[in-house]
Amino acid sequence: MAVKKKTKRTSAINGRFSGRARGVYDGDILVSVGMVVLYVIFSAVILVFSVENFKGIMQLHWAGVREFLLVLAFMAIFATALSLYVASCQPRIVKNHLRGLVLLVTLLIMTAIVRLGVVRGWSPYLVVVPVMIVAIMMTIAYTQRFALGIGSFLLLVSILALHENPELIKHSLGVLFTAGGAMGIAVLSLREIRSRSRLIQVCSLAALVVFVMIWLVGLWQGFEYQAIFQDSAKAVVGAIAVGFTLQGFLPLIEKIFRTATSLTLLDYSEANKPLLRKLAVEAPGTFNHSLLIGMLAEAAAEACGANGLLCRVGAYYHDIGKLSKPRYFVENQAERFNQHKELSPTMSRMIIIGHVKDGLELARQYKLPRVLHQFIASHHGTTLVEYFYHEATKKEAQVGRSVTETEFRYPGPKPQTREAAIVMYSDAVEGATRAMQDPTPTRIETVVEEVGMRRLQDGQFDQCDLTMRELKIISGSLIKSLCAMYHSRIAYPKREKTEKGDNVRLESIKAGDAE
């Protein structure tokens, strides 16, 4: 495909846009750096806090000031590594300051709990509790890889909190092994939460690892059996308590991080949900269309390693905006009367494009999880409403006027995630194949690849991390699913009576004549 050279005007526009985007990005970095600096200061204050240390710092005693400066230096190094890790694994946290604030406040609260345990003389192995809480929360909100990194960071900070007590320092190696092992088992076992007991099961498994690790380390370091038993019992109870605690706070965690677990998604996939029931009654064509999109998108997502359940549930709700004017969409026109015949192309364009905005309003009204809103907002991206654009072009050409293409494009945004892009692709190919007169496998393959290429060339996949290899896999999955949906059928015999009525003759119907 030939690539057109940029004009001076286009280059100037791109230059201004790049400069503006760079300014916004620099501003994001400055705010993030400021938040990290405040985190370092507050965490250092927490880690050295005690009545004696506080008096020493306030009276400028060298010992107290020296300890504070050393802890501050350690935390500055740790926080620098944390910032680079977050920027590498989850750059959206750098841009979304609310997410960054939630992460840092969570770490501060857990650090304060560890410090409280040190001051009150709790077992050092109870460090496993805050470390597991943070790691599991990050697994739910982000990814396993990110959770392991954040959990390891908190574990290092917790080891630093033991610095002033020589008795606790002897246990630091055991705490490192025990909390690290429990965190790894909990995170790697928690791929998704599809049942209400999943968190308890994962934390029980982690508790078993805690018990074994404390005994191994205790015997290795020569501690007394009674001390080992007490530490292991307390840590095991704490690890199991993490599961029950997080299970109770799971809805709050989902709301804070604007995510949804598999358990929540499964709940919203049930057909008796108010919004889906309303869609089935008032817009049955759209309801069936959404079910098909869900099946196509889930299979395609699982083929390329994306979240299939999220795609399926997102597809169920992606067209709920059509509930406001269901008869203006062809799948709901059972009487075969086209409502748009009485409207101008411009008015039809407003109705068609408006279903995205109406869908978002319904999503907020029915309090759908925030993670599902992206499918409503971006399932058309910034694509062109082609039919009414061409109708408007022909109509305006008769009076010597032209129509700008931008007026007939959806407002966006473009898909920001792989799952949203898969639903967009599935939506487009399902509609295209349904409009075919004779959907043979060869024609289906051609249509699917053409639709994907048009979306790619139109820049609809530019803002999501979808690779060309994954796009090829998704296309193959869609072709396979659509061919299965529009498969050829066996020729059934037709039973007819003769004039006498006592003989029955079977006539074969040619294969492919009846669907």
* Beta-strand content bin: under 5%
- Overall geometry comes to elongated
Count of extended strands: 2
Derived from helix and strand composition plus strand pairing, the structural class reads mainly alpha
Could you give a short account of the major beta sheet?
2 strands, antiparallel
The rounded distance between the terminal residues' Cα atoms is 39 Å
Low-confidence residue ranges: 1-25, 498-515
Helix content: 55-70%
Biggest sheet, strands in spatial order? Answer: 1-2
Q: What string, H for helix and E for strand, traces the elements in order? A: HHHHHHHHHHHHHHHHHHHHHEE
Radius of gyration: 30 Å
- SS field, number of helical segments: 21
User: What's the mean pLDDT score?
Assistant: 86
Descriptive notes:
The structure is a single chain. The chain has 515 residues and is mostly helical. It is built from 21 helices and 2 strands. The protein has helices spanning 8-48, 51-58, 62-89, 91-95, 97-120, 128-141, 144-161, 166-169, 172-189, 198-221, 225-257, 262-268, 274-282, 284-304, 308-317, 345-365, 370-378, 386-397, 418-434, 441-457, 468-485; strands spanning 494-497, 504-507. A hairpin with a 6-residue loop joins strand 1 (494-497) and strand 2. Helix 14 (284-304) crosses helix 19 and helix 14 crosses helix 21 (468-485). The radius of gyration is 30 Å and the shape is elongated.
